[in-house]
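stuck on whats below:

***
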Amino acid sequence: MNTPTASNLDPLACDIETAAQIAGIHKATFRRHFIQTGKVTPRKVGHRTVYFIEEVRQAVSALPNVA
């Protein structure tokens, strides 16, 4: 049986810097367009704030297309 290690697991959540990188935008823009509008929900784990990667991807996918 293979025991999963950190190197072969896909993360479920990330910090704001990584979430903004996934979205391809600056951290302040991520806050303004996704967090403050409620499209992405920050969650607390101890003292850390994390963001579900799938939720970030869905929020980016829901953005309007450029005409």
